[in-house]
Design goal:
The protein has two domains: 3-205, 3-Layer(aba) Sandwich (Rossmann fold), CATH 3.40.50.150; 212-276, rRNA adenine dimethylase, C-terminal domain (Helicase, Ruva Protein, domain 3, Orthogonal Bundle), CATH 1.10.8.100. Helices cover 38% and strands 19% of the residues. The chain is built from twelve helices and nine strands. The strands form two sheets. It has a seven-stranded mixed beta sheet. A two-stranded antiparallel sheet has the order 1-8. Strand 5, helix 6 (128-135) and strand 6 form a beta-alpha-beta unit. Helix 8 (168-176) packs across helix 12 and helix 9 crosses helix 12 (266-276). The chain is elongated and about 65 Å long. The protein starts with 5 loop residues before the first helix and ends in a 5-residue tail after the last helix.
Amino acid sequence: MEFKHLKSILEKHNLWAKKSLGQHFLMDESVCQKIVHNLDLKGQTVVEIGPGPGSLTDILLKAEPAFLLAIEKDQRFINILKEFENPVNTAFTIVQADALNVCISKLLSEHGKAGPYHIVANLPYNVGTELLIRWISDIENITSITVMLQREVVDRMTALPGTKDYGRLAIVLQSCFDIQELFQISPEAFIPPPKVWSSVAFLKPRKDVPEPNVIKTLGKLTNMAFCYRRKMLRASLGKSLPLTLWQKLCDTLNIDETRRPEELDTHTFLAMAQICSKEQI
């Protein structure tokens, strides 16, 4: 399918973005090429989330992965995606499903594929962070994640301690991934144009990914801490945790309980989670 014809195909089938699904279709070919150029996908297993009319799918197929699985929630686009010419060296499968409700590894296994995979996604702004957090549960099978999100979300993912964007999302994701913002995208690259700029982020699983129970505890701790962002730690974690445990954390990790949560780095939060995970908080 020719990229330049995608807009006319949308018009022909009267297919427009659904606000309820947070859809904004990427229609700039140069942006799609830039996304895929960062990856070496030849002979790899790739999962595309939310392909829509297929602008990025087209470029992904040309990168010659061994297998491309497209997961699309919106039934309207299934037949359009099936029209893509399929290179002989790429197996291409489309599944209609909500990415929030599927286990990617299980879905790949059902199609005869196992082992590591890359995720490439233009995520709806309303579910993007939830999907990223959920994918951590299968991180041992993920080679990389390349994701397009609202720029403000990527700012929060890559934020450093002491900044306004630093919080729960940065701490949890940075404990599991090395994260890099690749580039930003103008609203004009989409149909319809969103009201905000977008960013493309690249996430690579860390070699020292915490144990699942530690990640779960880290989520609980950061939720406790950042629910009271402007309060001192003794008024957030100090009030939420058992007193003996809180005192143990402060003593063991040399934590000043008069500091605010955004002042603690990811390493400290992770060390707290490792201790608390043994206490089953």
